[in-house]
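#help-structures

NK: newbie question. if I give both the sequence and a SMILES, will the prediction place the ligand too? trying with zinc ion
OV: yes, paste both and it writes out the complex. here, I ran yours:
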Amino acid sequence: MTAQTAENEKLDSWRRKQLHGRHIKDLEQPHIDNEASNKWLKIGYLFPETEGFLISIQDQVVNTKNYRKFIIKDPCALDDRCRKCHKNPETIQHIINACPVLTQNDYTHRHNQIVHYVHQKLAIKHKLLPPKVQPYYQYTPKAVLETILTDKTIYCNRPDITLLDKTHKIAYLIDVAVPNTHNIKKAITDKIHKYSELKEEIIRIWNLDKVYIVPLVLSSTGVIPKHLHHSIKLLDLPQNAYITMQKAAILNTCRIVRRFLQEEPAIPTDQIS
Ligand SMILES: [Zn+2]
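OV: that's the protein plus ligand as structure tokens.
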């Protein structure tokens, strides 16, 4: 069986499942690059069980408390509140992007891995780092990387990365977001809005000709908006850079959900007599 046939069969069997298929609909939206979003499946770098797990996360058929109560209609599932924050319904979207208990560690780690990858790629491209370096997931960017030779500086603060090209008087304000699939469009416009004031300010202070706000947005389940290609091109990074970003996003998301589900639900305080 060729890789292409295998992939088509996977996609067909996926479409046929009645409860599944939500993700396929997500991918049909005009702002989404369908092919790029399925790249991880086509390359096939995940273990089969992780691949299956990610598909169930994408299709929202994971054994969360909300799923047990409202989809399986398990009579024992009385309470669907999150086992960690005890506030919101425990849906898969809540676990992968919105649980306030997870924000500081797991989501930040996933976000930072993508920032570090892009930072490293830019630093190598602009000769601020030698071409042979450690893997991006072991890489910690310095707050400021500068060389007099190229007259270029990369800051790593807020936004995630600022690339300043003093020779050409251009700056790039680069900010990463890894939202839920239905929030991709909003995340892109939010970034542009958030940095528009800073953009005007640094044009004036640094006396620049041009400042670009560059949102790098992909969903936590690896869905790639067409806009990401635009941002990658603007930074003059390799066109396939999105593949590593997608891998970092989905591996971290699978880890977050696995760890979350392994934890036994705490007994809600209002049920203790
Ligand atoms: Zn929660």
